[in-house]
Amino acid sequence: MDFLFTQEQEILKDSIRNFAEKEILPFVKESDEKGKWPEELTKKLGEMGLLGIVIPPEYSGAGYSYVDYVIILEEISKVDPSVGLVVAAHNSLCSNHLNLFGSEEQKKKYLTRLASGQTLGAWALTEAEAGSDAAALKTKARKEGNYWVLNGSKLFITNGSLAEILVVMAVTDPEKKR
User: Fold this and answer.
1) Most buried residue, 31, 35, 125, 135, by CB count within 10 Å?
2) To 5 degrees, how large is the angle CA 109–CA 113–CA 114?
3) Domain 1-118 in CATH: superfamily?
4) Please, which residues bridge with residue 166 across strands?
5) Do residues 59 and 99 make contact, with C-beta atoms less than 8 angstroms apart?
6) Is the CATH number of domain 120-178 2.40.110.10?
7) Can you give the C-alpha Rg of the chain in angstroms?
8) 94: which residues sit within 8 A by CB, 6+ positions away?
9) Exposed, middle or buried: residue 88 (CB in 10 Å: 0-12, 13-18, 19+)?
10) Per residue in 36-91, pLDDT tens?
């Protein structure tokens, strides 16, 4: 098995490094000092395909491999680990859950907005009593007609202050604890 990067991956690595130095680095100091996400960066990340890294092109994603994904995160995080974390949480915790487990309707409705950079995605797992133990969740979800009604509370929502779309972990069948 060959563990060296392909020529395309080396080009991707250089491209992301250049993007990070040109587009992310200028925001680092102010973002850290103010503790505020630079909204214009969301658009730039989306335009580069970095908010739909492993999402298929039919949903506005870049369709990269998981190895490419790691290369991208590494190059972004060298310039600003905070941006790397936002990109990772958005892609892995929100978008990829929809990509892997969402209905076709959900994919069309949400993935195109997430992958294009129209908005960021968040992940709501942690609860006061359960921590991040998905098997101990107390938040319930029940279907009412065409909608899901959630009852519970979350804290430490990853990307929560930045996002318009959230993946919320909740129990749908209390007897089976899932």
Assistant:
1) 125
2) 110
3) Acyl-CoA dehydrogenase/oxidase, N-terminal domain (1.10.540.10)
4) 122
5) yes
6) yes
7) 18
8) 114, 120, 121, 122, 123, 159, 163, 165, 166, 167
9) buried
10) 999 999 999 999 999 999 999 999 999 999 999 999 999 999 999 999 999 999 99
Complete DSSP assignment for the chain: ---SPPHHHHHHHHHHHHHIIIIIHHHHHHHHHHT---HHHHHHHHHTTTTSTTS-GGGT-----HHHHHHHHHHHHHH-HHHHHHHHIIIIIIIHHHHHH--HHHIIIIIHHHHHTSSEEEEE--BTTTBT-GGG---EEEEETTEEEEES---S-BTTTTEEEEEE--BS-TTTT-
12 near 68, Cβ under 8 Å? yes
Quick one: how far is CA 66 from the chain centroid?
A: 14
The answer on pLDDT for 178 being more than 70 is no
- First-last CA distance in the chain: 39
Threshold 0.85, pTM exceeds? yes
